[in-house]
Amino acid sequence: NFMLTQPHSVSESPGKTVTISCTRSSGSIASNYVQWFQQRPGSSPIIVIYEDNQRPSGVPDRLSGSIDRSANSASLTISGLKTEDEADYYCQSYDSSNHNWVFGGGTKLTVL
Amino acid sequence: QVHLVQSGAEVKKPGASVKVSCKVSGYTLFELSMHWVRQAPGKGLEWMGNFDPQDGGTIYAQRFTGRVTMTEDPSTNTAYMELSSLVSADTAVYYCTTAVMIPALDYWGQGTLVTVSS
User: Fold this and answer.
1) Min CA distance, A44 vs chain B (Å)?
2) What are the CB-based long-range contacts (under 8 Å, 24+) for B39-42?
C-alpha cells in the first residue's frame, strides 16, 4: 500500500506559473499512471490530466502533467494562471497490490 | 451525452444503513466499471470501491470492507452503493464516477449528501 502526499496549499499571482507536487510513499511513481482532478467549491471533481500527462478534450494546454522518477513524484503545472484556476486539485493513482485506487490529500490553489 | 444522476440527500441515525443510487443515461451500465468516492465536509476525496459488471466483481477499500455493498440493476441502468453501521464520521458527499471517453474517471454524478446524526 502507498500514499500520495500533496502540499496542503499553494498560491500564486495571475499570469504566473504554479506547480503542484504529488509524492508517492512507496513503490515507483512510474509503476501506475497518475491522474489529476480539479474541484471547485460545491462542484463534482473534473479530470484535467490522465495517464501522467494526457489532457482530456476541452482542458487548456496551460495545464500539463509530468512525473519525476528521481523524486518519485508527479506534478501538475498550470501556466498563465487565471482566477478561474482557483480550486482544489487532487492527484490519483492505482495500487496494483490490492487493486485499490488512491487519492492524494488535495492541494488548495489560490490565485491572488 | 452521458449523465450520472444520483439520488437525493439522506439523513440517517447512527447504526442505520443508507443506499445511494446512480442512474446512468446515454450509455449502457454493463459497459462501465462504476466507482464510488466520498468526501467528508472540508476534507479530500476518498475512494471506496468499484463494481465491474463484466465479471460481476467488486473491489472495496479495506476500511469499508464488511460495511459497503456495490450493486447494479441492468434493467434500470442504475448503480447502487449501500453503507451500513453508519457513524457520524460517515457524514459526507458520496459520488459515483466512471471512465467513459478516456481510461480515467471522466464522468461524475452530482453527489449525494449523507448526514449521520442522532
Assistant:
1) 6
2) B39/B92, B39/B93, B39/B95, B39/B111, B40/B89, B40/B91, B40/B92, B41/B91, B41/B92
Cα–Cα distance for residue pair B32/B50, rounded to 1 Å: 10
CA A103 – CA B18 distance, rounded (Å): 24
Contact B53, B77 (CB under 8 A): no
B109 near A CB under 8 A: yes
Query: Measured between alpha carbons, how far is B75 from B77 in angstroms, rounded to an integer?
Result: 6
Distance of residue B14 Cα from the nearest chain A Cα, in angstroms: 26
* CA B11, chain centre distance (Å): 16
Q: How far is A4 from chain B (nearest CA, A)?
A: 12
Comparing alpha-carbon positions, the chain A residue that sits nearest to B105 is A47
Q: Which of chain A's residues have a Cβ under 8 Å away from the Cβ of B97?
A: 44-45
With CA atoms as reference, report the closest residue to A20 among A73, A56, A62, A61: A73
The residue of B108, B112, B113 whose CB has the most chain A CBs within 10 angstroms, and thus the best one to mutate to test that interface, is B108
> Could you read off the pLDDT of B12-71 as tens digits, one per residue?
999 999 999 999 999 999 899 999 999 999 999 999 999 887 777 899 999 998 999 999
> Which residues does A98 contact at the CB level (< 8 Å), separation at least 6?
A1, B62
Taking phi over 0 as left and psi of -120 to 50 as alpha, with beta for the rest, A98 belongs to: alpha
Quote the mean pLDDT of chain A. Answer: 97
